[in-house]
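USER: I would love a firmer grasp of how sequence relates to backbone shape in proteins. This is the protein in question:
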Amino acid sequence: MIPPPARIGTLIDEVETPALLIDLDAYERNLDRMAASVAAFPVRLRPHAKTHKCPIIAQHQVARGAVGVCCQTLGEAEAMVLGGVRNILITNQVVSPGKIRRLVALVKQAEVMVCVDDVANVLQLDAAARSIGVRLPVLVEVDIGQHRCGVEPGVPTFELARQVADRPGLRFAGLHAYHGIAQHVYGLSARVELMEHALGALDETVALLLSRGLVCGLVTGGGTGTYPIEAASGVYTEVQPGSYIFMDADYRRVEGAPALFESALFVLTTVLSRTGSRAVCDAGLKASSIDSGLPQVKDRPEIRYVGASDEHGTLEDGSGSVRVGDPLWLIPGHCDPTVNLYDWYVGIRDDRVEALWPISARGANA
């Protein structure tokens, strides 16, 4: 981990760029708005930590009522446990022998659950859990339209759930059903229509399991783009929004629930060069992910970020307002992979550095 790009108490002008900023006022409002929003439904909040990769932020979410967090990788879960988070769902499959040993060892330190979609993996997890005397909570992942991981709804889900329930080293904890594709469908009506089919299939699956003696104590899924739909469905018991704390440029285009939240994560960059209407800043591909579109310049609609190379970002400024040395705040196109490029968050309030938070799970992809 490299040293932070600033010191607490210094003015924002002294932050070395590129740097990853959190507007602390906006961030705290986002936390409070989500807590209030979810409280209106009969579900629990389990935010996804793959967005922020920071145990300090996870603790802020738990302090506002979250039951715990989700992690996408075992490495993220280990970082969260090391940072004091005690209730974690790994929303992924853990299949290699070395990772399975790490997983069951982690269960001795915290409440850690994992997803499965394959019977051979169920047998591996059972053997590993029994070998060290733990009982591992397991959720069956159901494919409700993402077409990534998961088994088909209905009988295939029941058959795998029965395999889990029959293993003495495992505990059948419920179902994981996340529709990632639906999160970034920009139109609200199209998003609702997409989720209606998924919810119907999931509801029938839960009823099937119950009719055959398997109670789904936990049905979890949903993201920032759809969580009110899952929360109001009567099927889900938990929702997993993650990006709401930061709100990247792509989510700003999504109608509905995301409008509750405001941009709180920024890449601070400095203009290095200017020629005619073109300017160049020091935030390129290694400073902001562009997989979901290019960054936007905060509060400067006359300036467009139009291209990126490794260390440079190209800006189009027909107004002529940008000068060499000017700082700009960029709203990343996609917050999750942008966060993974940095070691530190720089928390800003009233133009001063108030907090420096390590991104402890940066690069924890294994």
